[in-house]
Amino acid sequence: MVQQITKGIKISVETNFEGTFYKNYKIQFAYGYKVTIENQSKDSVQLYAREWIILDALNNKELVSGEGVIGKKPVLKPGESHTYTSGSLLTSPFGAMYGFYSMVNLATTQKFKVAIPSFKLSAPFALN
């Protein structure tokens, strides 16, 4: 598990390898990840957007951005957390992801970014 705190918002990420399959005659490596967003600040905040950078061992880079997370824009009061699961496909058995969440402090209306720490994606059979 990797963790990082930015401006009182703690991001924790756990990953797992889901398996392989073929898509368009190419092997795909499927990874799942679980993210917990915990508000350790004194104000209520809302997550309204996210941006991910997904890298694989073949030097492919993909940028994924959009509103919310899995169709939600969670509001977190102090001490609350929001957990969700998602996944990513790579064309190699190794990779990494990182990015940020765009959030707003509901007390001050100030917008800010929260770092999503870099985490590794690796297929266990490919490790020494």
From TrEMBL:
PROSITE patterns in UniProt: APAG
Segments traversing the membrane: none
Residues in ApaG domain copies: 3-128
Any Pfam family hit: DUF525
NCBIfam families: PRK05461.1 (NF003967)
Record protein name field: Co2+/Mg2+ efflux protein ApaG
Taxonomic path: Bacteria, Pseudomonadati, Bacteroidota, Flavobacteriia, Flavobacteriales
